[in-house]
Design brief:
Radius of gyration: 25 Å
CATH architecture of the largest domain: 3-Layer(aba) Sandwich
Number of helices: 17
Shape: elongated
Structural class: alpha/beta
Order of helices and strands: EHEHEHEHHEHHHEHEEHHHHHEHEEHH
Oligomer: single chain
CATH superfamily of the largest domain: Crotonobetainyl-coa:carnitine coa-transferase, domain 1
Strand content: 5-15%
Strand order of the largest sheet: 3-2-1-4-5-6
Distance between the termini: 30 Å
Largest sheet: 6 strands, parallel
Number of domains: 2
CATH topology of the largest domain: Rossmann fold
CATH class of the largest domain: Alpha Beta
Helix content: 25-40%
Amino acid sequence: MTQAKPTGPLTGVRILDLTSVVNGAYATQILGDQGADIIKLEDPGGDIMRRPGVPPDRNAENLGPLFLTLNRNKRSIVLDLKKDRARAAMTRLIASCDVFVASVRYEALTRLGLSYEDVSAIRPDVVYAHAAGFGSEGPYAGLPAYDDLIQSASGMADLYPRTFGGPPAFLPTQAADKISGLFMAQAISAALFHRERTGEGQFVEVPMLECVTSFVLVENLYGHVYQPPADQYGYPRTLNPFRKPFPTKDGYIGMLPYNDRHWELFFQVAGFDEDFAARPEFATMAGRNNNIRDLYSLVEKAAATRTTQEWIDLLRPLSIPVIALNRLDDLESDPHLRTVGFFEQHEHPQAGAYQVPHPPVRFAATPSSIRSHAPLLGEHTSEILAEVGLSEDEIAQAIGS
């Protein structure tokens, strides 16, 4: 892959990225796909996600699978910020960037001379985004935060026992990291929009606990929206053990009759009695929500009477939402994903052949793109320092060579 010019809506925006692992790296990956020039600053040890999962038969040292996915469209610069020459180069680098984003704990940034006050003194209109574990005004401020901890503290791990009984459990994905990354990408874009209108930069704090708890409570605050509470925590339709892919004769299916007409038609084609849809517990959305477990249990029994394709052929002409279940192994051959080019195939000069998901959001006028591979550690150090005006001698001094 030769590095192409960016075409996305953030083309021309330059971001100094001091994030690592998943949370912040996912945010800057999204912004990089959308055209921003992402300068990934790493210490000499590199992002820890460079190492896990590298196949033993690949010449892919420091290019693990998560790193390849999360760090495309980024350039890597290595500076040891404990050294004076590196900090002097960092000043020039900050002055060239529209956005400064970090996931290091704020106290550590302050010790390095990289607080918001320090950075904005160099670049007054900077958008300074900090991926914090917990909001700076609360008693957890400054504590370390990881996906497991945030799933624990946000109520997310309580969704399993409220649905299936038993002990709390984590969602088997890095949900907290990725949700927080989405919040951060949106927040940076919003702050850039504000700066475009006013010329004013600002400090943006993106605390994981608050973001993920907000996400969980969209539907699960439920009866506690009202004060005093009118009902329980948890949305009954989703906290329902029968809400799941339904087994068919030959596989599984996602099937969701939703409105009154859908349910009336579904009961008819599924072979229920003619007056079944008129029963008070199933005739209205309120009645169905109050009897959601019984309702989904009936759907599960009906689903087992036909094959997946038979249900699709039966329900789609009736506009009843239905789709075949994909296992992870099925995604690469899914006809829709194949048609839209969801998986992009690339050849990394060191790691070899690999594939990554195409940027999913479609901008008609300013398309996102994958322009460059995930970088080798420090691959672009000299190039970037030259861009901000350092001479060859100054570059050598900054990198300690």
